[in-house]
Amino acid sequence: GDEPKPERLYDVEAGYKVNSKWVKGSLNLYYMIYKDQLILTGAQNPDTYEALYTNIPDSYRRGIEIEAIATPLKWLWFGGNVTLSQNKAVNANSGDTVLSYSPSVTALIKAGVETHGFTASWLTRYVGKQYITNTSDENFTLDPYWVTDLQLGYALNVKNACTINFGVSLNNLFNAEYCANAFAYDEAYYFPQAKFNATGKISVEF
Length: 206
Fold this sequence. Notes:
The chain is built from no helices and 14 strands. It is mainly beta and 206 residues long. The mean pLDDT is 95.
């Protein structure tokens, strides 16, 4: 295939931050203009199964990012972030199309507690609709999805010896059925993600 061209990027950003005793937050606006952006085509190399890339002559990514975290109590924190964006290839003849694998909405909600050696954290991720190819073809899309994970831990301090860390991760807690990736030829081929699953670990620190 053709050798890829180097990308050129012109990036303009403006932001604002808040940093108080209990709340930290930020707001960021960005506008990135690309020349020859290298992006995924949605296809794979039939021999190696590697994802294929191509240069898009003119494209842009622009949006707003908001993030905040609050610590109302010494042992409790919660917060999240959200990004709203437009990610498009500029097509003079056929109109702008959405760039592949570029959701216009992503978000994260998180919370945690930490006390007496115990830790627990809750993470809920949202990823909006994605196009697999760069044609904005509704037949080649990834549906939006929500996924929640819960992580539990305990640190046991053995006096003058070591710390034993116990951890359990409960993944996809609500058994969501979703696909986080796919590729396309004449039709779309999807990669389903695991339903509810759990992992555990034990580590020792000397």
